[in-house]
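step=encode ok
step=design start
structure_in=
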């Protein structure tokens, strides 16, 4: 094996390890970060009501986001897996969402290579009252 082939193989192995760590069937580190974000922003409203944010933003390093986009449907499966895991976590803890749950995956040049950043917020949602018309 030539030196160039060895370098190519090493780079490919590192890429595969990174991909498996961040976006395998169970992206454990990322799921843990989402759960921590949910838990740390829980608001206890009463003994039986704990409300958590409903909008979660996952920012990925550029090259990780590019690879996710390049693989097409894999990206939607990752987003769905993250959402499903967060729903199960909330159910186990008796949390109530502040509105419809949304997990957005975006790219960010501000995130160090191979890493991610997770943030949450309460996304306003539309209620039926906004659509009621008054008689003239």
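sequence_out=
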């Amino acid at each position: 094996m030539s030196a160039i082939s060895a370098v190519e193989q090493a780079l490919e192995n590192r890429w595969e390890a990174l991909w498996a760590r961040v976006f395998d069937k169970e992206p454990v580190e990322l799921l843990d970060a989402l759960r921590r974000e949910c838990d740390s922003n829980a608001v206890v409203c009463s003994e039986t009501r704990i409300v958590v944010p409903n909008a979660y933003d996952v920012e990925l390093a550029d090259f990780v986001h590019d690879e996710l986009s390049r693989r097409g449907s894999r990206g939607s499966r990752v987003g769905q897996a993250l959402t499903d895991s967060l729903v199960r976590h909330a159910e186990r803890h008796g949390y109530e969402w502040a509105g419809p749950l949304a997990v957005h995956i975006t790219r960010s040049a501000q995130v160090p290579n191979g890493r991610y950043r997770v943030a949450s917020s309460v996304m306003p949602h539309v209620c039926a009252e906004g659509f009621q018309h008054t008689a003239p």
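step=design ok
step=annotate ok -> The chain is about 45% helix and 25% strand.
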